Each structure stands twice: as C-alpha cells, then as structure tokens.
Amino acid sequence: MLLFASVCFLLGSADDLVFDGLWIFHSVKRKLFVYSRYERATVETLGQSAPDGRLAIFVPAWKEATVIGAMLARCLRQWTSSQFRIYVGCYPNDPATIAAVAAASSGTENIRIVVCQQNGPTTKADCLNHLWDALCQDEIEEKTNFKAVVLHDAEDLVHSQELRLLEYLIGRAALVQLPVIPRRATRSRWVAGHYGDEFAELHGKQMVMREALGASIPSAGVGCAFARDALQKLTIRTKGKPFDAHSLTEDYELGLNLTGGDARGIFARLRDRDGQLVATQEFFPEKLEDAVRQKSRWIAGISLSGWDRLGWKNDWRENWMRLRDRKASLAAIILAIAYAAVILTGGLLLADRFGLYKFQPLSGFLKTLLFVNAGFLMWRLLLKSYFVFALYGLREAAISIPRTIVANVINILAAWRAIGHYVEQLAGHPVNWEKTHHFYPETSEIQQLRSGYSLAGRN
After folding, report:
1. Buried/exposed code over 371-410 (b: 16+ C-beta within 10 A; e: otherwise)
2. Would you tell me how many other CB atoms lie within 10 Å of the CB of residue 287?
3. Taking residues 101-121, what's their average pLDDT?
4. Which of 20, 122, 263, 354 has the smallest number of CB atoms closer than 10 Å to its CB?
5. Across-strand partners of 87?
C-alpha cells in the first residue's frame, strides 16, 4: 500500500512541479517585462465601455429566504453606476423566498422575480434556463438586447466595481471570470477555512496559467459574465436552453464549451484604488456534512460525469488542464490508501515493540520514494501557504499547513459520496439540486471584512 501510494504521489507531484515551474516563469516574466515598464492598472483607470446594452444578473434561489433579501439589497447599494437587471429564480413551493425577493424588489425596477414552472428543487441549470427564457421575453417586449449574463448565488458579497470591470472586458471574450474569495464564520476555522486555502491557490495560480497557456476557462458559477451573443449561438445546438439541466456542474461545463477553440476566456485579477481585488466573496459551508455534500457534487460533476460528457480534445494544453481537473477523485482514493498504510505501519511498529510481530524493514527503493515525496510535500505546503498569505495574511497561512489534513479528510469523504452519486446517475436516477445551508453576514461583519484580512496581500 505504501509503495502504490508513493508511486502515485510521485507522478502527481511531478505534474504539479512542472505546472508550478511554468507559473513561476510566467510571474517573473510579467514583473520583469510588463510591470517594470507599465504601472499596474486599477479598475478605476479603465476606459469607459461602449453603452451597447445592459447586464443581466441571474440568481437561482431555492430556500434562500434567510439570505436573498440582504444579498439583493447590497447589490442595489453597490451597483449604482451601471445598467443592470437582476433576475431571481424562485419555485412555487418556496413562498418564503418569493416573499423575501418581493420585499427586496419593492420600489425598484432592477429586480425581476421569475417563478419556475415546476416545484423545487429541480436542478440549478433548470432554474437558470427559466431566467434565460424571461430575459429573452423581456428583450422582445422592450426591443433592446442585454450585453451579457452574469451569474451569482444568493449568498454572494459583490464588489462595487464588478459590473464596470465586466462591462469593459466582455466585448473582448465569451467569458469573463472574476476571482472568488471564500470567507468563513469565526466558529469554523478548520472546515470553512479549507475553502480559502484551496481557492487562494486555484484563483491565484491555476486559473491564471490556464489563460496564459491558451486553454479554455471554466466558470466558477459566481462572479462570471457570459457574452449574450455567445449564449445565443450555443442555444442553437441545445434547443434553446444554454444551461444543461442534466449536469451537476453546469457552470463548469458551460465555461469550457464557450471558451474552447477560437473563443476566448478571460480570468480577470484586477484591484481597485484601495487595493481590494475586484472579486466575489461568500461564506462557504461551516459544517463537515455540508462541506462533504457540496464537494461531492463538484467531484461527481467535474471529475466523473465531466469525463463522460466533455471527453478530450486534440490539444495537449487543453487535455492537460482537463486531466488536472479530473484527477480529484483518484487523488482522494490514493490519499485514503496512504492514510490507511501509515496507520497500519504504525500499528505494526507498535506490535513489534511489544514482541507481537516481527516488522519487516522497508526496501531501499521505498525509502527513497518516501524521502522524495516528503520533499515534494514540503514544497506543496509552502507554495499553498504563500498564496494564502497573499490573500489572508500570515496567521491563516500558518494555519493552512495543518488544515491540509482536514481538507484531505473532506475530499476523501466527498470522493466516496461522489462515486455513489455517479453510479446512481449511470443507473438512470435524476439529478437534483442538493441544498447547502448558506450564511450572510450582518452589516457590522461586512465592515469588519473590509477593514480586516480582506486587505491582506497586495501582490
């Protein structure tokens, strides 16, 4: 077991090391040849985009009565200089959410309630398709077109300059994705905190390099804008429904479908004049059960179903990125084997100490593998802590190292649950929207976020 896990870790570490090397080269090149000659731009220094259409913000909501009202109120306060309309998808058997949206939309024309035809929960994609139908109906009645469709969740904390940045960039690409910054409640440092560790590296390195290599850009499902024309072209092939209701990760698949080939995707990491990243912030699950449920959907949709649904391309860069996306389920199984092997080895050593078993010494080859993998592990932990430090500060960076064990446990449990869901899908079971409990901070907590560690790191 140790030998099998060690060989697999070595292969995975070699892949990560090549990717890390390319990111370091890319970062150094930008600092030497770009930022040394040109001042870093902020969103306020961008030119004005052409006034050729409004932005439509899609917010699917199933049992979000506790958070949707505050989220919509914040959007209206933050986005005062852009033309937009928020389409909120609700369900007829969820009157509490409908009432909360109705209260938030009172006195404004920027929010439109769309009630789905079926009782919930269906799928998130099905809800989004109802919002798309409502948008097309409004365009016909008002004889004007929207410029882009922006996706958000009911618990998102939006940035005041988000729409300005998306308006400026969307004419240059089919998809524009902004960074996502996970936040956590103070009582969930370990479970909710591990999302921050993962997204700090994912949106600080992985997405940056995908764009630099010319590979397709997956959508994170929030803080992303799709060009309206690109979605319209896609509906020709999908019978008028741009979002696939049979997918667990419709946002991820849509991003790959829209930005493959000649189409372009942009991952936009830009700050405002105060040094804040123009990004979407949200509070991720704080309980172990909720985190496993959410991540199992991601693994099942991206790593398992995505393999079947999207396949591979005739491009080494694209296939490399898809392989890195899809190895999550295999990595979790190997981690489980490695942890079991370490526990068993410890048990055998203990038995040997009491004379109950004669422990067989490890081979020289296995010792070498363990030594090399230990070096790779130290590199991975240090690099991850660097990205966490750049986003959250020194304290979170230090905690991110032991928090890796918590992340591994969550990913192992999520992988096993995802495999079960995948088998059910193969057996013909319908895909349903699994509800995750969401949390939205009070105004005082939002102010604390803005003045606290949300300003950490300016690189």
Report:
1. eebeebeeebeebbbbbbbbbbbeebbebbeebbebbbbb
2. 13
3. 93
4. 354
5. 58, 112
